[in-house]
Amino acid sequence: MTNKKKQLKNPKDNLTNLGKDIVNEIGKGKDPTVTFQTRALSNVTFDKKARTLVLGNSMSARSFFNVAHAKKFLQTMEVAAVAKNLLKEGKHASLRDVFYQVKRTIPGTKVNIVDDQPESDAVIEDLELITGASREQININANKNGSVAGKVVIKDRGDVIDWSKLGSGGWSVPSNVEEIEFKKVDAKFVLYMEKAAVWERLHEDKFWEKHNCIIMASQGQTTRGVRRLLQRLHTENKLPIYVLADFDPWGFYIYSVIKFGSISLAHLAGETAIPGVKFLGITADDIEKYGLQKHLITFKEADKNRLKQIEKYDWFVDNKPWQRQFTMMKKMGAKAEIQALSARGISFISEKYLPEKIKNKDLID
Amino acid sequence: MTKTKAAELAEKQRSISVSEFFLKNRHLLGFDSSRKALLTAIKEAVDNSLDACEEMRVLPEIKVILEQVGTEDKYDIIVEDNGPGIVKEQIPKIFAKLLYGSKFHRMKQSLTHDEPIFIKRNGKVEIISIGDFVDSILNAKEEIKDVSFSDIEAPAFDPETNKYSMQKVSHVIRHKRENEILRIKTEYNKEVKITGCHSLFAYNQETRKIESIEARSLKIGDYIVVPKNLPEVGNLSEINLLDYVCYEDISKNWMYVYGIKDVVEKLRFNARIIHKKLTTRSRKYYQVKFNGTSVDILEESMRQYIEKGFLPINLVYKLKLINEVAHGSIITYKHGKTSRIPVTLGLDRAFMRFLGLYIAEGHSDTRQLGLTFGKHEDALIDEVMQFAKIFGLGFSLEPRDRSIRVKLFNNIFVKLIRNICGAGAHNKKIPEFIFRTNKNLRQHFIDGYCQGDGHKVKQRNCLMFTTVSKSLAFGLQYLFLMNGVTSTYNSRLFNGLGKKTSLVYRICVYGDALNASHIYSRSDVKIRPRIIDNNVTKVLGVLQQEMVFGDLGFVKIKEIEIINTGYEYVYDLSVPRCENFVGGTGGISCHNSRGQQGIGISAAVMYSQLTTGKPIKITSKIGPKEPAHYYELHIDTARNEPEILKETTVKWDKDHGTKIEIQLEGKYQKGKQSVDEYLKQTAVANPHVSITFVPPDKQKQFFKRVTDAPPKEALEIKPHPYGIELGMLISMLKFTKARTVQSFLSSDFSRISSNNAKEICKIANVYDGSKPNNIPTKDAESLFKAMKQVKIMAPPTNVLSPIGEDLIIKGLKKEVNAEFYVAVSRSPAVYRGNPFQIEVGIAYGGELPQDDLVRVYRFANRVPLLFQQSACASNKSILDTAWRNYGISQSRGALPSAPMVLMVHIASVWVPFTSESKEAIAHYPDIIKELKLSLQDAGRKLSSHIRKTVRARDQKEKAQLFEKYIPELANALFNLSGNAKANIEKDLMKILKKQLPLIMGVQNDEQKETTEKSEG
């Protein structure tokens, strides 16, 4: 069957239809096949107008009676069945839950339907493409991962929550933020950082209170929930968003994902990408300006290779300020973490670095 | 008389020593459990049989019978082979004396008593018959003696470089003759008489290599190796006259040594003053002590000695002052005339020529030397008179009919010449020290001899020497050989000048070789050069590319004569490492026997004796016409000597062979460490062996022979520089015979050329001419480092005895039932100076169990290693190899699991075991590296097979998977769509049936999900 791009109101019906279509094909004696857009860098393009990544038109077909695809096909149907069941019962499951619901040994063989979680995770992402419904819409959630603090009041599942009154931990961002309602937002900008430890530093220094902003972090790669929350703050509340990341190729990519969308989730770029985001630091100029040269970490081979990949991405290739950053980084042959700023004093980041950067609008687009 | 307590204890100590030694070390000897003991006993017996057969180039046929005695854990073991058998006298010692050399079959290759050999003993050269030489060392009962601590050397060529050098002799051997004697005559009338099983070196036309070949398989027309050049023995430039003259020779004459004031003063300084009463008055004496003897010298005499700085010659001899007075000179009185001659005689041209002339033309009686020249030989007469004047000898001319005789007088000089050159024609000989001078001086001697005695035979283009002294003839040939000249030899009866018939020896030197002599370059007789190069060019044409001939030449065999009578005893020498020496008339390279130590079978006998008390029974026969000897033996543990319980001759229909019957306590079990497994693995690594095994259940097993090619014999070689350790280098430097560091490097190591040696010295910044014995440790260290920097050829392959890829596969095929076989034989590598070679074989698939861990067969020099697999370097290498790359599953840190037998063989001159029990190979990085490389190589070859056949099987299995997938898919689709599961399943099965041929035909299962571009 071919993928029906139209978004159905009810994802459950969507799944049921998928099943019925396939059964139909089987009934006709055809090799059951699902077709969907290819999720790979080769099929991702940069939409210059929208300034986000978009998935191209290259399609992948997955059919059962193909030795190489058979297991994948079975997995896809298994996961679809699990998702349908979730929707039917109105329950939410984590990625891990889904993995265990699918994982079992096929009787009479030594073959497991799935061997590890990345396999089922990938199938769930495929399913998003096949059904046109996002993961959250079919009641599958990622682990929550992210903290936020600021003078904001929200309503979530009937509870009213004040982000400024949640002690040292802040509010932890759930994986699905669609149902959240903003009651009051008193902030001039949002500061997002890739390190939870830096967030804790700023929270302890009451940075959000002093500078009237929202601080948000998730450890490492930004989760979908956090990205969606950032997007909603940006679009619904017109808040500028600044990203604070490590001075290394991976830090730059974190910014890239928030701004343009990620390659593996290019089909969701429209919902998660925030083209207005700006990069605050750490920049190559900061290294010089704040004397961090002595606190650099020399590049390893992997760093060099990653940098080479990034500088060739469509969305960076014509961007002069970024190309300048890449060139400088290459020249230094080294990287620096945000925490390198602590070398100048534990609260140097909250008292000197950030206020200066923000005041001077020292940002990269 | 009562013994002291200590003596009693000592006695007791001795009486238990051998058995106690055994019990304490039984784990090392492989007798630590009753199961292992049974295996070890069989193993020792079978290994011995294989070695014996290999040495004699016999294809082994071995029979092993194992019988349980009653119902106890006791077994009778019978091992029978078709080996060469054991000499009667050796049997008791080999089986019933612990720590006696276990290689018992070798003592049979030898030369006859009268064959001359070239030997350096205590610094002096001897050309002596091997019989006289060995008899002078062995007492009447001895058969073999270790002489490695005596200073005995023989010229031997290095099998790698083919260069001759003087090498230590480790053993001298004498035994009763058992085989036929062959007299082998070659071109140039070289000749040697040896036992039929003794080897000579010959050029093998097929392998194009020099190989040791048993004399009895040599044919007329074969080329055998002869030295083209003998090594330099020394570089003597002077001799001490007193070394060659003993006191008895001159005791009747008054002689004094003058010019030694320093020596006399030293004597007096160290002397004690004593008083002796002789008649009535007491007189003062100096009691002089030197070299352990003491002499009392009257005070007045001493005063005189000091004043004039001399000593009477009798005192010099008595006090052994010969070396101390070397700077003095001897004064004799003859008819009131004094003559003076130095103690140290410089070996210059004049002296060497004089010796040559004397040997050619001279004779002597007790007081004078006479040299008789033809009347026309004025120049020579002048030369001798001139020599006499310079030496201060009295002389006179005595004209005869057609000749002139020059007479020389001087008591001590006459004695010297008589002693070193012989007095008359029949006992003339070449002075020993001539062999120790340099080439130039030797040539002066030869020149003198030639001018005196040589006849130039124009038409035959040769120079001929005739003598009636055999010793002179032999000596001359060796002397020529040292100067690189090959001479021919013959003897004939001749009616000489002296009217009576005598045996005359004739030495001829031809053409080019002759021109090597000084005199002929300016000789009036022009001899047309005739190229005689010992056929090297002839043979070289064929194998120039393959070897360096060094000092070796070839001569064709002209005659082989079998002698069956006489020669009661035959003799041999052992030269470690080179395994050859020079013997025979004119010099031929002889391959000598090799000695080896081991505990071997006698340990099994000891174990048997301790557990059952039964004697060992041996039957052995050494030839078809010989009787078979039967022995029953015990070990006398008090003396560690064999105790013969029964000794007789029996009938045995075998031509030759040995049968051992032994009863011991043991356990027979099947499994990985069983007798069955040991024999099976032995058969794998030795495809030339045929083994019959009758286990206790009488289910006969037969391991058949699949090749008629016995393995190549392994040689020993010198260490290779890349593998040596600093400590070893330092001790080698200390003990080397070489005079310079450069020659040390090139002669004591394998594969270092003189250019390499120079380069090493240069890099190490060590003067290449410095004495190796004086090299400081610091320099040794830099030499050590430099050696590793210089590019040096790998050690030679021909010293190792690998099985070879073909035979590994053959061996595996016959004992392991599989579908695919592959073998890898690496080229040799080096660890710590020892070359080694790794071989790997794989048998895969077929009837081997599918999911078990692989079976590993480990071998060291073809002997299976059954114990301590996990401690073995091979095991580590197998674990470290990434078998998954070759399509074989392997859990982390485990052996791969596959239907596979993995065979690993290390062949080495010296296999490094982790312990004395010789069960696991030590973890040397070089060995592990080679092991891994060979495993990887074999793995790659296996993987292409697996890809081809096993993949197809996987494909099939995958297709079968669909049947299993369908119910699952139907279930999921039922959940998804709500349609009836049974229908979906039925429909899917229908499609499967239709699609199946298509699915099976899919070759490439790495097909990507089909990607297509859709419009829009």
In helices, the fraction of residues of chain A equals 40-55%
| Total helical segments of chain A | 14
CATH topology name of the largest domain in chain B, in short, is Heat Shock Protein 90
In total, the number of domains of chain A comes to 2
The global form of chain B is elongated
> How many strands of chain B?
50
The oligomeric state of the chains shown is heterodimer
Q: What is the averaged pLDDT score of chain A? A: 88
Largest interface (CB < 8 Å):
A-B, 42 and 40 residues
User: Structural class of chain B, please?
Assistant: alpha+beta
Sheet of most strands of chain B: 8 strands, mixed
Task: Describe the protein's architecture and organization.
The complex is a heterodimer of chains A (about 375) and B (about 1000). In chain A, helix 8 packs parallel to helix 11. Chain A has 14 helices and 17 strands. Chain A is α/β, with parallel strands linked by helices and about 375 residues long. Chain A has two domains: about 10-30 and about 65-140, Orthogonal Bundle (Arc Repressor Mutant, subunit A); about 145-360, Dna Topoisomerase Vi A Subunit, Chain: A, domain 2, CATH 3.40.1360. Chain A has helices at about 10-25, 70-90, 95-100, 115-130, 195-205, 205-210, 225-235, 250-260, 270, 285-290, 300-310, 315, 320-330, 350-360, and strands at about 35, 45, 50-55, 60-65, 95, 140, 145-150, 150-155, 160, 170, 180-185, 190-195, 215, 240-245, 280, 295-300, 335. In chain A, the strands form six sheets. Chain A has a six-stranded mixed beta sheet, with helices on both faces. Chain A has a three-stranded antiparallel beta sheet with strand order 9-8-11, with no helix packed on it. In chain A, strands 1-4 form a two-stranded antiparallel ribbon. With about 1000 residues, chain B is of the alpha+beta class. Chain B has six domains: about 15-105 and about 595-700, Heat Shock Protein 90 (2-Layer Sandwich), CATH 3.30.565; about 110-230 and about 535-590, Endonuclease - Pi-scei, Chain A, domain 1; about 240-340, no CATH class; about 345-520, Homing endonucleases (Endonuclease I-creI, Roll); about 720-790, Helicase, Ruva Protein, domain 3; about 800-950, Ribosomal Protein S5, domain 2, CATH 3.30.230. Helix content of chain B is about 30%, strand content about 30%. In chain B, the strands form twelve sheets. An eight-stranded mixed beta sheet of chain B has the order 38-37-36-39-2-1-40-41. In chain B, strands 42, 43, 44, 45, 46 and 49 form a six-stranded mixed beta sheet that branches. In chain B, strand 43 and strand 44 (about 835-845) form a beta hairpin. Chain B starts with a helix and ends with a strand. Residues about 100-110, about 515-550, about 590-600 and about 1005-1015 of chain B have low confidence and may be disordered. Strand 4 of chain A pairs antiparallel with strand 50 of chain B.
